[in-house]
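@channel sequence for tomorrow's demo:
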Amino acid sequence: MLVGGDPGGTGSSPASDPAASGAVQSPAPQISPPAVRDAQPVRSEGVRLTYVDLDAGAPKVLMNNVGASFYVNYDTGDRPEHKIYGASGIARWKGEAEPTLRRCAELIDTQGAGDLPVVTGARYCVRSSGGRVAAITVGAFDTATSAFKGDVVVWGAGPSSP
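structure tokens (generated this afternoon):
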């Protein structure tokens, strides 16, 4: 006695075998990971480089370093050495090419420090506590505010951020 409807003993029945029933099987869709691209940056010019929050969207100058993504410590001694501090890492950008999200994130991951000397005209990459990445170009020292002014480009979370 035959049980199950497999008269040929092949282990499949016409009802369960798509080829035997004439059904056409389409191949499984190929899923590719999304390409990591630079998110649309937020650009701000003439930012007073004191205590700056990058997680608020556009760079926001704060009254102290609580919540600051980066800040500049202004040494006013005989031989002032101003330093820039990054909450989650900072690295000096070198070269003529414009910084990008991916390259800044990689630079912070491979050469990041907690602080670096501030140099007029220098560019830095910094990562905020929230994972945003920014490129900072240090401008001239503004004697009226006793602080450097700078241009800041902020991207969303970087490709290597958690």
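heads up for whoever presents: Residues 32 and 115 are 39 Å apart (CA to CA).
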